[in-house]
Design goal:
Blueprint lengths: L18 H5 L6 H10 L1 H10 L9 E6 L2 E6 L2 E2 L1 H10 L7 E6 L6 E5 H17 L7 E5 L4 H13 L2 E4 L6 H11 L3 E5 L1 E4 L2 E4 H8 L8 E5 L14 E3 L16 E2 L3 E6 L9 E5 H15 L7 E4 L6 H13 L3 E5 L10 H9 L3 E4 L1 H10 L2 H4 L8 E4 L6 H11 L6 E3 L11 E2 L13 E2 L5 E4 L12 E5 L9 E2 L3 H6 L8 E9 L5 E6 L3 E4 L2 E4 H9 L4 E11 L3 E10 L7 H15 L7 E4 L13 H9 L12
Parallel strand pairs: 4-17, 6-7, 6-8, 8-11, 11-12, 16-17, 16-18, 18-19, 19-20, 31-32
Antiparallel strand pairs: 1-2, 3-13, 4-5, 9-10, 14-15, 15-25, 21-22, 23-24, 24-26, 26-27, 28-29, 30-31
Helix pairs in contact: 2-3, 4-5, 4-10, 5-6, 7-8, 9-10, 16-17
The chain binds 5'-O-[(S)-butoxy(hydroxy)phosphoryl]adenosine (WT7).
């Protein structure tokens, strides 16, 4: 594990945004907010929760029976009441909730809070008509269209547990998730559109429900009005027909704070996917609080999280968090590099996006194609930039900060996981930002970097990132596998172990290096794959890199690097030498790859994480294991 593992903390480089960013933000001074939390953790979450509406208050903020926590004990609520009714009954009634954009310019839909509430109620009534009841599981396998969000909220309205499956997954992954949750209803669409092509989702569902006896009904949103797909009435029902004649009102089901809200399978770069279970009350408070304080959402903001609701980022920061805050959200079915690599910049200008949340893999792609694309657009509406999913290496940070934010916008590089439900570490708005480092635990979270005995490691020494206290939006269990849940709290007694390696600097800023299973032991030294990758990417010729360990009789392992070059750069032996030399200077001789291969693409999960185990299996001629999450 993480001993002997040192990171050279190069000279600290900080960016400090203008003081006004902090002065005008919800979070204010980080230290003050964090100290207030530490002084009274339960009081801290109690007041966050009081900003929302509950049908019945809690007897106790939290009850901690290691490793199981209950939050807002005995309270009753419905998350959709807070996402919709609360705004629809206020001055926000006619405020835009969702702006949807399809692949072409003429495909646009806009829903106000009042309209969204009505749509959700009608669809919820439709689901009830199909016999869906509180506690039943409903699988949502849809493109990014307003109906996808309506379906999620309609389930939550009546207390059904949704399990959203990303529309890019294939038959076996979908089948696995339907069977895993014993879903009663599957909601899908005829097609999703990607890069100008229609991808038939319904056909995939037809194959995926074979050997899934729990499924009673399939609801189909028919988007292609000219050539409507056939509906087989013994099993299937049209999305709109389902709502014929139903009422526009649907009372929100009073949910216990601990009732499950949804199950979401993790993207799984390792092992088989796990059904992460989140609970209604704590998840609501965690996503509400973080969206408000980390993104600083105000009523005037135009908020865009580029993640598909099929991922946790889309759940927490594409749907629930922003709607809980009454924000105006852009959602799109677009691809960032289609029809040109300027799609996102074009949309930011057109919709006047102020808060933009995306992933490092996208940022590096934008870097590769060059700044002439964003430079054609007016991006001055932007005020806050966010990143999530992987380490945001300093070069990508720099590019995002200068080329997109023009040196004005704070970047919140947020570390969290499907399991944590909400953002956990970042550099809050207005605090000095250190490229390569996510920052510190947010107020509400107690985190540290420790060795395997649980002792905090000194600055510069690698260790495991742990969370030391329960938090409201933590997963409650793994569906049908509580034992696997308990393992998260087993590695370091008393702590939640994230399985990420990290290092702290002298100021307490945390750099997340990567998963602990992405560690290569070379001649007794532990080397993080992400460290070597970051070193390679810091070379001007390199766009992306992935490294793996190869067994070696002498050293235990050697490092092999797969490198994608920037447009216009030619592979060759000279460049290999340059890269080797560059890694030597950056990380030292121990981290030098013994092999470099230039490639055009890398195997990634559909959420953009490099699947190193697939590269490794290929390289060693082994079985790559479960590859259901692999992008085509
Ligand atoms: C893993 C969780 C939760 C959002 C999407 C991914 C990595 C996430 C960062 C970051 C470095 C990060 C970690 C984490 N990760 N954010 N800002 N810097 N690494 O959710 O699929 O559950 O993956 O993503 O390795 O454990 P997920």
């Amino acid at each position: 594990m993480a001993e002997n593992f040192n990171v050279r903390l190069n000279e600290a480089k900080y960016y400090t945004p203008e003081a006004s960013c902090r002065e005008q933000s919800w979070i204010g001074d980080y230290n003050r907010a964090y100290q207030a939390f530490l002084a009274d953790p339960d009081g801290f979450w109690d007041s966050a929760a009081r900003e929302l509406e509950w049908f019945q208050p809690w007897d106790q903020v939290r009850e901690w029976e290691y490793p199981h926590a209950r939050w807002f004990v005995n309270a009753k609520l419905n998350i959709t009441y807070n996402c919709l009714d609360r705004h629809a009954h206020s001055q926000r009634r006619n405020k835009v909730a969702l702006m949807w954009r399809g692949e072409t310019e003429d495909e646009e839909r806009i829903l106000t809070y009042r309209q969204l509430l009505q749509e959700v109620c009608r669809f919820a009534n439709g689901l009830s008509r199909l016999g869906v009841r509180k506690g039943d599981r409903v699988c949502i396998y849809m493109p990014v269209v307003p109906e996808q969000i309506v379906a999620m909220l309609a389930c939550a309205r009546i207390g059904a547990i949704h399990t959203v499956v990303f529309g890019g997954f294939g038959v076996s992954a979908l089948n696995q998730r339907i069977r895993g949750t014993a879903a009663k209803v599957v909601i899908t669409a005829d097609f999703t559109y990607r890069r100008g092509k229609a991808i038939p989702l319904k056909n995939i569902v037809e194959e995926a429900v074979v050997k899934a006896p729990s499924v009673e009904r399939i609801v189909i949103l028919r988007r292609d009005a000219e050539k409507p797909v056939e509906i087989h009435p013994e099993m299937e029902v049209d999305y709109h027909d389902l709502m014929n004649g139903v009422g526009r009102e649907c009372p929100p089901e009073p949910m216990d704070a601990e009732d499950p809200l949804f199950i979401l399978y993790t993207s799984g770069t390792t092992g088989s996917p796990k059904g992460i279970v989140h609970a209604c009350g704590g998840y609501m408070v965690g996503t509400y609080y973080t969206t408000k304080h980390i993104f600083d959402v105000k009523d005037s903001d135009i908020y865009w999280c580029t993640a598909d609701p099929g991922w946790i980022t889309g759940h927490s920061y594409g749907v629930y968090g922003p709607l809980l805050n009454g924000a105006t959200c852009l959602i799109t079915e677009t691809t960032p590099d289609y029809p040109t690599p300027a799609t996102n910049w074009d949309l930011i200008e057109e919709y006047g996006v102020t808060i933009f949340y995306t992933a490092p893999t996208a940022i590096r792609m934008f870097m590769r194609v060059g700044e002439e694309w964003p430079n054609r657009y007016n991006l001055s509406s932007l005020r806050i930039l966010g990143s999530v999913g992987e380490p945001l290496n300093p070069e990508a940070f720099e590019w995002f900060y200068q080329t997109i934010g023009k040196g004005r916008c704070p970047i919140v590089d947020t570390w969290w996981q499907t399991e944590t439900g909400m953002q956990m570490l970042t550099t809050t708005i207005g605090e000095p930002m250190r490229p390569g480092f996510v920052g510190k635990p947010i107020p509400g979270v107690v985190a540290d970097v420790v060795d395997k005995t649980g002792k905090p490691v000194p600055p510069g020494t690698g260790g495991l990132l742990v969370i030391k206290e329960p938090w409201p939006s933590m997963m409650r269990t793994i569906w049908n596998d509580d034992e696997r849940y308990c393992k998260y709290w087993d590695t370091i007694p008393g702590c939640y172990t994230a399985a990420d390696l990290a290092v702290k600097d002298e100021d307490g800023y945390i750099m997340v290096i990567g998963r602990s299973d992405d560690l290569i032991v070379v001649a007794g030294h532990n080397i993080g794959t992400a460290e070597v990758e970051s070193a390679l990417v810091s070379h001007e010729a390199v766009a992306e890199a992935a490294v793996i360990g190869k067994p070696d009789a002498l050293k235990g392992n050697t490092i092999k690097a797969f490198v994608i070059l920037r447009d216009g750069r030619q592979p060759g032996d000279k460049l290999k030498n340059d890269l080797t030399y560059h890694v030597r200077l950056t990380l030292g001789p121990i981290a030098i790859p013994s092999e470099i291969e230039f490639v055009r693409s890398l195997p990634k999960t559909r959420s953009g994480k490099i699947m190193r185990r697939v590269l490794k299996a290929q390289e060693l001629g082994m079985d790559p294991g479960d590859i259901s999450t692999l992008e085509e």
